[in-house]
TrEMBL record:
GO MF terms, alphabetically ordered: 5-formyltetrahydrofolate cyclo-ligase activity; ATP binding; metal ion binding
Positions bound to ATP: 10-14, 145-153
Native species: Vreelandella sulfidaeris
SUPFAM superfamilies for the chain: NagB/RpiA/CoA transferase-like
UniProt cofactor(s): Mg(2+)
Full protein name: 5-formyltetrahydrofolate cyclo-ligase
Enzyme class: ligase
Membership in a protein family: Belongs to the 5-formyltetrahydrofolate cyclo-ligase family.
Binding site for substrate: 56, 61
Record InterPro entries: FTHF_cligase, FTHF_cligase-like_sf, NagB/RpiA_transferase-like
């Protein structure tokens, strides 16, 4: 019963945080993206990155793509997530360039088109990146993350629970997505830091 209540609470919290994010105007979104970009550029973890994944925003998510020109100048390799075909709810990462053929996935999110052999061959699992910019619905004062609820990032990053490669995980969000404390599940993969348009919180 206890866990049923928790599920209901989580669902309600997700809904309310998503609603707040979606209520932001285009102008507020643009401003937030610029401020996020300024914050990110000062972060040592980002300045170290050589192979990084970003994401294309949906449903009012903060837009990390404003960082793209700066990353290009620094010759950082930029990747976008794609849904892994024939595999339940996990992600691959494909290099993103100006000419990358894109297609909408089953959630209506644009992603590099895996029907192109070159992209299929050059896909990477998350452990091959050194830095991931991770979207989220909510974050708390200790940098705990609540995602969309599909477990996509958690599944793709499950290797982080074992010794081995450990890319830097940076959550990004609007400041209005912060709450005091979130429930943490055993499968949740912790982020090192969450950056918003108004600052950042680090994992203790
Ligand atoms: N490593 C894993 N292996 C199998 N199932 C997993 C794994 N990680 C998460 N899940 C499943 O995914 C479901 C959703 O997890 P959770 O509520 O943490 O989603 P989320 O973190 O909000 O989603 P996302 O990672 O897509 O942003 C859970 O029911 C959980 O059982
Ligand atoms: Mg999770």
């Amino acid at each position: 019963m206890e866990s049923l209540h928790q599920d209901d609470d989580k669902r309600a919290l997700r809904r309310s945080l998503r609603r707040q994010r979606q209520a932001l105007s285009q102008h507020e979104q643009r401003l937030a993206a610029q401020r996020l970009c300024q914050q990110l550029k000062t972060l040592p973890e980002i300045r170290r990155a050589r192979r990084i994944s970003l994401y294309l925003p949906v449903n009012g998510e903060i837009d990390p793509m404003t960082l793209l020109p700066w990353l290009r100048k620094r010759k950082v390799e930029v990747y976008l997530p794609v849904l892994r075909p024939f595999s339940a709810n996990a992600l691959w990462f494909v290099a993103y360039h100006s000419g990358t053929p894109m297609v909408k996935n089953r959630f209506g999110i644009w992603e590099p088109d895996l029907r192109f052999g070159a992209q299929r061959r050059n896909r990477l699992p998350a452990w091959a990146l050194d830095t991931l910019i991770v979207p989220l619905v909510g974050f708390d004062n200790s940098a705990n993350r609540m995602g969309m609820g599909g477990g996509f990032y958690d599944r793709s990053l499950a290797f982080m629970h074992r010794p081995g490669p450990a890319p830097t995980l940076i959550g990004v969000a609007h400041a209005c997505q912060q709450v005091a404390s979130l429930p943490v599940e055993p499968w949740d993969v912790p982020l090192q830091v969450v950056v918003s348009d108004q600052g950042y919180v680090r994992r203790q």
